[in-house]
């Protein structure tokens, strides 16, 4: 599908009625970086820092991490790079830091692990801050936030790391900090969370899994895992509206953002930016460059009256075909 789309790599994601929506990428491996830049990514909405951790046999040192992060920040500079703090647990466990639990997705995951191990968190944040010196394109994002106190604790640690790096004589600026909204509790805490941070980002992969109570990796219930479920769509709309009430920006960095049919809905809902795998960048841009915001809003209004994820999905396909 992406074949022949290279021609639009350098063009902005602009609808025919001049609505501009930035398209960012999700990265982890260095190969993602080259593909992303070739396809005109405007920034990184999610850099999964656990990827370099998963590729090693022990925790990378502060200096090793600094080098890895510097590489990523330099490759995209001056574009912003959103680095998510370590999101292990769930389905991602490190061989050198095993976590054995009956219900890993409801267990010790993401921010829960790093707040229990502030030494891991501090090393990581210091490495990010040091890597950003002179580039100033770093944004830090916290995964699996469920309660406001987790953000308060994490902010406290980030400020501490910042002070430590400053005291080493490095001219590091305090980066914007954001949280992922991917746990249902966070959906109802968006305004309180937004007051604490600079930006929010919707993790539709986990949000779908937790809202629908469907394991995102279990083939037996894969037919039930559908981000077009009206409950997910309504949650996303609420997150966007509540974030904007606090004057903050909200992006979406789950797989949903890279689905052209969903991108139409998300744009109409007013999301500030879409972040996706580089593979989907050009087809999403191609789709959004052909549909007016006015039409997208009509489609959204119609979809929000429907109660079945599969019907929603197929009616979007139909709308796409008739536009195409
Ligand atoms: C998500 O949950 O939507 C997300 C982007 O994070 P991950 O897929 O890494 O859990
Ligand atoms: Mg997630």
UniProtKB/TrEMBL annotation:
UniProt protein name: phosphoenolpyruvate--protein phosphotransferase
Compartments in which it is found: Cytoplasm
Family of this protein: Belongs to the PEP-utilizing enzyme family.
Name of encoding gene: ptsP
Native source organism of the sequence: Endozoicomonas euniceicola
């Amino acid at each position: 599908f992406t074949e022949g789309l290279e021609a639009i790599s350098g063009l902005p994601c602009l609808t025919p009625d001049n609505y501009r929506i930035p398209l960012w990428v999700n990265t982890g491996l260095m190969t993602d970086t080259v593909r992303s830049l070739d396809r005109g990514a405007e920034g990184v909405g999610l850099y999964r820092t656990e990827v370099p951790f998963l590729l090693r046999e022990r925790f990378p040192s502060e200096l090793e991490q600094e080098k890895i992060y510097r590489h990523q920040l330099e490759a995209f500079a001056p574009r912003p790079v959103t680095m998510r703090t370590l999101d292990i647990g769930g389905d991602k466990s490190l061989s050198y830091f095993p976590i054995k639990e009956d219900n890993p997705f409801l267990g010790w995951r993401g921010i829960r692990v790093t707040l229990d191990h502030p030494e891991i968190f501090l090393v990581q944040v210091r490495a990010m801050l040091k890597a950003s010196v002179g580039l100033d394109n770093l944004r830090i994002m916290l995964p699996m936030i469920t309660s406001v106190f987790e953000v308060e604790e994490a902010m406290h640690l980030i400020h501490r790391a910042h002070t430590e790096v400053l005291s080493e004589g490095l001219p590091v600026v305090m980066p914007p900090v954001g949280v992922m909204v991917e746990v249902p509790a966070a959906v109802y805490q968006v305004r309180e969370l937004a007051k604490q941070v600079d930006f929010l980002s919707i993790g539709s992969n986990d949000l779908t899994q937790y809202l629908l109570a469907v394991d995102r990796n279990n083939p037996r219930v894969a037919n039930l895992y559908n981000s077009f479920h009206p409950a997910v769509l309504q949650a996303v709309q609420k997150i966007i509206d509540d974030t904007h009430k606090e004057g903050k920006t909200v992006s979406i960095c789950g797989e949903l953002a890279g689905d052209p049919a969903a991108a139409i809905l998300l744009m109409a809902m007013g999301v500030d930016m879409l972040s996706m795998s580089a593979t989907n960048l050009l087809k999403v841009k191609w789709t959004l460059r052909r549909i007016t915001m006015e039409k997208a809003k009509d489609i959204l209004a119609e979809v929000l009256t429907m109660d079945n994820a599969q019907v929603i999905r197929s009616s979007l396909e139909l709308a796409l075909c008739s536009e195409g």
